[in-house]
């Protein structure tokens, strides 16, 4: 489902958690559940001084012609837009890219984020060497810590000294003022290279969904290669092994969640019920992802709803009752993964990719480790809603002004990284060489060797997207569970008022998100009284929220909504 490509209180787009889900890289969720900036950022918006909007229906002539790549068939087809599931790895892989795309042999420069320790570099990494042999040249990655990525991008774009391939997640784009101007100045217009049948030399790029390509358009130009997103901002995970020990069941109502807070917290044993859950609580109370219309047709922002106030009050209760891990209380941006995996946090939210990533880490460390995801629920046990994200959550840009033959080589590299599950290329950039970086388990699933664990990181994965798939069948029951969950979620996605409209929000409106969220974090932790929420909402309205409402109302009106 297409969504609104903005950030903060105006968005329903994907975030870093949902993106990292797709590559299995994961990242630290915003501890304490930042109510605005962490979970509703945009796929391709950014902010401009005045704001702008483009309907994706008007972009047809700019987009590549979709041509499906007939690869391995899924065992569990996705329903209503959910990703297909593969319960086993294919015994025979197909070669999708016949020839190395970089004919010149000239080294490629690229910048990508990483939420893990950096692997050995070019020249000291046999995994890199194996992929670069297929590519035809070395890819020299400038790997930047994902948490700091947004801070690095602003100065980099201002300097103009960018690499040939620059990966920019949507949540970082949405925080960059005047990004539309930077796009024109720094990045190549890919329309002449990829629009329509021109994409045919790059069949893996042609296999990416049209809805994702539409979100790679800025200023009526195709400016990037998109990374398709499953549109699921996060899942609420629980330690099934720990809950089974005390006979606890996953929650189906807010009352259940409150009871789990009491039952699972035991500070003497260094176990707390919750980490970050605030976004899931908002969703459970029926808070909209961004805007909704009231009975008079007026746009109402999520933070102006009574449901939002109820959700904030409940999360505050979890903090005040001591059910939240002390490190989360002290640091709203800390990494909760070790706390969850170590059993100190029992329930927390994170992106879909953290599930498989965590199982990979824990299967040898703690064989009894079990985690599952909670099926989305409504606070009162009624019909839930699930916030829907954009069809693309990250973008790779090509440096402007390069010769046409070099642009073709770089698009060839992105064609390589877009190879789907079941291809030699996908296997190689995920797992390296068989017998060296991984071995086959009896089930046929790859298992990383010590060398693979050392050298492999999601670097090529961050260069460009590939079709969605649920594939890590080496974890018993995982593919089946994730497939069932995604299919269930697809049935209750919230209707997005701005579906199919890419919006670049006004800069003044974008600047409201972080200050407001800081106040909400203080309310959670008791540093501000609950009554301050109404004060913060009023301040938000007077300092630009009401003007933002007028802007978004005009966007809807201009598009006949």
Automatic annotation (TrEMBL):
<comment type="similarity">
    <text>Belongs to the bacterial solute-binding protein 1 family.</text>
</comment>
<dbReference type="InterPro" id="IPR050490">
    <property type="entry name" value="Bact_solute-bd_prot1"/>
</dbReference>
<dbReference type="InterPro" id="IPR006311">
    <property type="entry name" value="TAT_signal"/>
</dbReference>
<protein>
    <submittedName>
        <fullName>Extracellular solute-binding protein</fullName>
    </submittedName>
</protein>
């Amino acid at each position: 489902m297409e969504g609104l490509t903005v950030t903060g209180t105006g968005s329903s787009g994907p975030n870093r958690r949902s993106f990292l889900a797709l590559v299995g890289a994961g990242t630290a969720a915003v501890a304490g559940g930042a109510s605005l900036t962490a979970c509703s950022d945009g796929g391709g918006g950014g902010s401009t001084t005045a704001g702008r909007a483009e309907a994706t229906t008007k972009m047809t002539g700019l987009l590549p012609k979709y041509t499906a790549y007939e690869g391995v068939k899924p065992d569990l087809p996705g329903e209503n837009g959910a990703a297909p599931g593969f319960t086993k790895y294919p015994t025979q892989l197909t070669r999708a890219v016949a020839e190395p795309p970089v004919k010149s042999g000239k080294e490629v420069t690229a910048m990508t984020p990483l939420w893990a320790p950096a692997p050995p570099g070019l020249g000291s990494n046999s995994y890199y060497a194996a992929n670069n042999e297929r590519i035809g040249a070395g890819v020299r990655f400038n790997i930047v810590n994902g948490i700091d990525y947004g801070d690095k991008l602003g100065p980099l774009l201002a300097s103009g000294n960018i690499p040939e391939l620059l990966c920019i997640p949507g949540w970082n784009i949405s925080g960059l003022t005047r990004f539309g101007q930077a796009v024109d100045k720094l990045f190549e217009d890919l329309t002449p290279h990829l629009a329509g049948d021109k994409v045919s030399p790059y069949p893996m790029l042609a296999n990416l969904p049209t809805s994702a390509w539409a979100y790679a358009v800025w200023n009526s130009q195709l400016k990037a290669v998109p990374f398709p997103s499953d549109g699921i901002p996060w899942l609420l995970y629980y330690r099934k092994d720990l809950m089974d020990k005390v006979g606890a069941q996953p929650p189906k109502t807010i009352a259940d969640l409150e009871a789990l807070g009491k039952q699972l917290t035991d500070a003497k044993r260094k176990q707390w019920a919750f980490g970050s859950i605030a976004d899931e609580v908002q969703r459970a109370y029926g808070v909209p992802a961004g805007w909704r219309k009231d009975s008079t047709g007026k746009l109402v922002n999520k933070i102006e709803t009574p449901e939002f106030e109820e959700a904030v009050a409940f999360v505050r209760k979890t903090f005040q009752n001591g059910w939240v891990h002390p490190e989360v209380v002290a640091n709203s941006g800390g990494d909760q993964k070790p706390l969850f995996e170590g059993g100190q946090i029992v329930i927390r939210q994170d992106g879909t990719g953290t599930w498989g990533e965590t199982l990979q880490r824990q299967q040898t460390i703690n064989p009894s480790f079990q985690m599952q995801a909670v099926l989305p629920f409504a606070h009162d046990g009624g019909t839930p809603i699930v916030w829907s994200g954009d069809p693309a959550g990250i973008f790779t840009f090509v440096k402007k002004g390069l010769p046409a033959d070099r642009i073709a080589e770089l698009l060839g590299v992105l064609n390589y990284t877009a190879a789907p599950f079941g291809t030699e290329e996908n296997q190689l950039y995920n797992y390296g060489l068989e017998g060296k970086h991984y071995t086959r388990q009896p089930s046929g699933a790859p298992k990383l060797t010590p060398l693979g664990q050392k050298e492999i990181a999601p670097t090529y994965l961050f260069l460009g997207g590939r079709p969605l798939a649920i594939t890590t069948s080496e974890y018993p029951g995982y593919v089946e569970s994730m497939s069932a969950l995604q299919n269930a979620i697809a049935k209750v996605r919230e209707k997005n008022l701005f579906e199919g409209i890419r919006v670049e929000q006004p800069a003044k409106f974008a600047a409201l998100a972080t200050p407001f969220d800081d106040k909400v974090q203080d309310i959670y932790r008791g540093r501000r009284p609950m009554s301050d929420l109404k004060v913060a909402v009023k301040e938000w309205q007077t300092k630009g929220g009401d003007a933002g409402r007028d802007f978004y109302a005009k966007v809807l009106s201009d598009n006949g909504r």
